[in-house]
Prior knowledge:
The chain is α+β, with helices and mostly antiparallel strands. The protein has two domains: about 5-130 and about 245-255, no CATH class; about 135-225, ATP synthase, E subunit, C-terminal (hypothetical protein PF0899 fold), CATH 3.30.2320.30. It contains five helices and four strands; from the N terminus they run αααβαβββα. The protein has helices spanning about 5-65, 75-130, 135-150, 165-185, 230-255; strands at about 155-160, 190-195, 215-220, 225-230. It has a four-stranded mixed sheet. Helix 2 runs antiparallel to helix 5 (about 230-255). One of its GO terms (molecular function) is proton-transporting ATPase activity, rotational mechanism.
Amino acid sequence: xxxxxxxxxxxxxxxxxxxxxxxxxxxxxxxxxxxxxxxxxxxxxxxxxxxxxxxxxxxxxxxxxxxxxxxxxxxxxxxxxxxxxxxxxxxxxxxxxxxxxxxxxxxxxxxxxxxxxxxxxxxxxxxxxxxxxxxxxxxxxxxxxxxxxxxxxxxxxxxxxxxxxxxxxxxxxxxxxxxxxxxxxxxxxxxxxxxxxxxxxxxxxxxxxxxxxxxxxxxxxxxxxxxxxxxxxxxxxxxxxxxxxxxxxxxxxxxxx
Length: 257
């Protein structure tokens, strides 16, 4: 399996979960918009209530002053005060509206980040299914080893894999070395499997919070200066970084709809 085949297989996994992610994006976007509208309505109603209370208070003051001689507190003065208060209230509403709008936008952006992370987690879980098909996984391992050797172009390398993959790696290593030698027109390299330090094991169940490895290999030159990380998780990271602008653009488009 060459580089294009590996990338294609991982991209298919990402596409497989895209529909679910799009539905989540729409749901979160609608929820954020509804929440924002409710908060805005509550603010407006609260300010209207303040205005009514203020007007009633001023009206009572006028009634009291009318009963007191030589007090020049007119309806016009009250109207001016109320106009000033309304201007202040309107300004406060605009400020609060702007703050709520920004908060709503932040919520949408955070929701988009959550969806992107959820998509990656889902894709990581899909990778675990690759290991369940032993023959397909052996073929994939061989392809990853050949690909790593072609990148390193070293006569002697150290190979690191998961402890549960040692037997599978040993079963395809000679064939991978021969394929590399044929493609590079060089002698088959010396490949030493590291039996002291292994890559992390697969995740326990669907818990992706602890260190884990979904499969694949890491090859390095004997001096450790050149390293080729060719695990399934690393390949997924590469594909995800390449597709991230497209994913974010798609999610942003949904949020505006």
